[in-house]
Structures are given as structure tokens and as C-alpha cells.
Amino acid sequence: MKPSLIARGLSVACAAVLVACGGHAAGDAASARAPSTTDPPASAAAVPGDWLRFDFNAQRSGVGPSDTGITSRNVGQLTLQKVHVNGTVDSSAIELHASTVKGRSRDVAIMTTTYGRTFALDARTGAMLWEFTAADVLSYEGSAQITTATPIADPNRRFVYAASPDGRIHKLLIANGHEVRSGGWPARVTLDPTHEKIASALNISGGSVLVTTGGYVGDAPPYQGHVVTISRTTGRITGEWNSLCSDRHHLIQPSTCSASDSAIWGRAGAVVEPGTDRLLVTTGNAPFNGSTNWGDSVLELSADGRTLLHNWTPANQAQLNAQDGDLGSTSPAVLPKFHGFRLAVQGGKDGILRLLNLARLDGTTGGAGTRLGGELQRIAAPGSGLVFTAPAVWKHGGRIYVFVADTSGTSAYVLGGKQPRLHVAWNDSASGTSPIVAGGLLYVFDPEGSLNVYSPTSGHKLISLPAGSGHWNSPIAVGGRVILPVGNANDHSSSGVVDIYHLPGH
């Protein structure tokens, strides 16, 4: 069905709503030949107006384009369009500017639903352009077997990589949604998708797609969090590292490992360190022994994802594990270099942020091992709430800001001092999902049903826009639009809504 546009041009403050219903396109389960040329490196130049992955870049800074067309002066002119789609998108969208789809140049928004239906919308009109549906979707649609992974566009802008709940990563042509089925595509990243969930956003580093796994709600064993690297060109697995039974360097049947859990499920998944391309991940509740089992730890892996280089494990790891305190409810947030320090911030379910020295994760320069503690600082998360989100890290005016939203509020922290420390710059009581900074504005989705827009430096709330309710969904802001999927994966719905806020003419 083509979208029906109602009341375009009225401001969101007047509660104008534009409604669109998405339909199916001919790209379902279709195949395409493999490309005849080698994919270019992941450092290919970005196109203005693109937002190709969760949190904008490989390091997951959450900082997008400096110019989105939306400013503090015109943010009140945004109009809301509600686009109805065939599933719930409990993650975030990506967008490609001026991409040729169905024979025309368009701004294209791409998303994946909880049951692995990946679709493309015309970001300007809300029209459905294509939809890819995994062949086995009917075997799990409506069940608790889901994915909440944000897809990622290849830097060459020809392909998008997307997850499905059957444990596979699909390579799709952006032009029409057809699937590449050659080499190792689609790539299988778990031997037991009924227990191992692809929850986190996909990432790309160099020639590899990065995938992490966790478990489902309820933590039903057996499963192990692991990191998989896949060749963008061939679809073959080039690296695999298990956070439990880590002496086994291949995909394992979860039931064959003596330990379970250690989910890698933070929204950002595998974070790529700038300069080194090393990977940072954080694990959830599980045993820890400093040799083969790495529960509730921040882990630094080699760039190829095959070797554990170092770890930070909190002194109360055993307590976190016993009390369902999941350090891995969020991924590390990498900060710009500060007085020569390479730093990261790590939150968790316990409502505490830790400032870590990436050169001395456990306080030493040695390799991974049994040592506990070693953080530079501990500071309360907003309202000491549970952190299930990816912080945004913004350098502006010579200052480094870290924006964190959680179940109890939204706060800005500023890094300072000769010995680095975080200091609270401002607080707001509104809860939020993963914040983003774009065009000099801070956007935070409150899953109770609003999109809050702030001045990042002062915390002044410029406007609170009406939105649907949600869960882990988060916005992107690019090209005169804000795109925000809404809805909750745990409702197990086969229908959903995407809220798109437009400036006039966008």
C-alpha cells in the first residue's frame, strides 16, 4: 500500500501527524550474483547526508554530521510522519543520501525488524521501496526468538548487512533488496540461534563485518557471548573469539562448553578503537577465571578479533554475577585522547560509570589475566539508574563531553584534570535510550513517549516532541529529518511504526 500523507506542514507542537502504511516489494528472498570487483576498504569517503551505521562511526561516538539542516531556531518546525511497517524495529535506522533504488536517486532509510525483515523506505515520503524477508521467518515470527541488531551499510554504498533471528547475517543489494547468495553468504554466526541472540548493532572494520552474540530474555542456558568477524567480500568467517571456553577458537555448540552466559549484548556491540582498530567488547553475567572464562569484563581484542589482549574486570565481579548486575548491559565508550591518555567509559546495570585507561586496563601494562579492578574513577550514572544505552562522546570548544541516558535520567559529563576525571555538567530527570549529537543538538528518545532535544553544553531542553513508546530504539538526525523507530521487541508484534520528523521540504 502506498503512503497516505495527512496534514503535512503543521508543526509537531500542534500535534500534526502524517500516516503511511508500508507494503511488500519484490525483493523478498531474491538472490543476486556476487559483485565482480573487490569491495573497497572501510575507509571509503563518506557522502554528506549519510548515516551508515549505529552511532554513526566504528568507534560508536554517537556524533553525526555537523550540519543536518535542523537548528535550535527551526527545530520547532519539524512535522511528524508515522510510517506503518511489517514489524517492530527495536534498534535504530541507517540512511543513505542520494542512493539509487528502484531506478531513482533517493534518500533511503533502512531498518531491520525483530523478526529479521529488513526494509528500505524513501526517507522523504515514507514509501516502502523494498523488503527482504528471511526464508524461515514463519518458524519464529511471534516467538521470543528475535534480533535487535541495527543493520550496517557497506562503505561502497552498494550493500547492506543485516541480521535475522536464525543466527545469520545477510548481504543485500541496496538498489533492490536482493540477497547475495554466494561464497559464505548468508553467514552463520551461531550454531544454536534458539539460545544465542544477535542483539547488538553490526559494525565494520576494514574488510570485516563485526558481529557479537548474547542470550535471550531470561538468560536460558546454554549460550556464550562471542565475537565473529566476516569477510565483507566472501562472507567467510575470518575470526571467532569466545568469551567462555576462550581456548576454543571456532564457533562452538553452546552445550559443549562447561560455562554459560557472558552475553555481549550492549547496544554498540563491538567498538573499534581509533588508531589501533582493536576491538572493545563488554560481557554480562558469567563465571570469571582470568584464563578461559571472562564474565562481567571489558575485553580488548586484536583488530582481527582472534586474540584477547587485555581485560578490565571489576573487583566485585562475583557479586555482579550473583546479583544479575550485568556489566555488559552497555559497551565501552571511547574518548578522544586527553593529555596522552587513551580512555573509555563503561557503565552497567549497577548505575556506576567507570573511567578506564585503555593502555593500562587493569592498572598494569601486562596482558589479560586474573587481576581485578584498576579503573581510574567511579562516578554515578544519571540518578544511579541502570545503563542499557550507548553513551555519546562529543569534543566541542576544547572540552570532551560524555552524554549518558538511562532509566533514571539524562546527564552530561565533562572530562577534566591532569589526572583524568569525569565531572557532572548538567542533569535532566527524563530517562532515555542511546543519545546522539548531530548538527550541534543533542537528541534523546524517552521510551515513555517523547523525543527530547537539548542544547548539549547547557542541558537546556529546546523541545519535547511527541513520539510512540519504545524500548531500545534510538534516533538518527540527518538531511533535515530525524528518524526514530518505536515499539518494544518484547511485545513480539509483527507490525510497528517508524516516526519520521521532517523540516519543511525534507
Q: What's the total count of β strands?
A: 35
Helix amount? under 10%
Strand content: 25-35%
Q: What composes the largest sheet?
A: 5 strands, mixed
Q: Could you say which structural class the secondary elements and strand pairing correspond to?
A: mainly beta
Per DSSP, the total helix count is 1
What do the pLDDT scores average to? 92
Contiguous runs where pLDDT drops below 50 for at least 5 residues: 1-40
Strand order of the largest sheet: 1-3-35-34-33
Oligomer: single chain
CA gyration radius, whole angstroms: 21 Å
- Cα separation of the termini: 22 Å
The gross shape turns out to be globular
Topology:
Blueprint: E1 17-21, E2 31-32, E3 79-85, E4 94-101, E5 104-112, E6 117-122, E7 128-133, E8 152-153, E9 159-164, E10 168-173, E11 179-180, E12 187-188, E13 203-205, E14 208-212, E15 226-231, E16 237-242, E17 271-272, E18 279-282, E19 298-301, E20 308-312, H1 317-322, E21 333-334, E22 343-346, E23 352-357, E24 377-380, E25 392-396, E26 399-406, E27 409-416, E28 421-428, E29 436-438, E30 441-446, E31 450-454, E32 461-466, E33 476-478, E34 481-486, E35 496-502
Parallel strand pairs: 1-3, 2-11
Antiparallel strand pairs: 3-35, 4-5, 5-6, 6-7, 8-9, 9-10, 10-12, 13-14, 14-15, 15-16, 17-18, 18-19, 19-20, 21-22, 22-23, 23-24, 25-26, 26-27, 27-28, 29-30, 30-31, 31-32, 33-34, 34-35
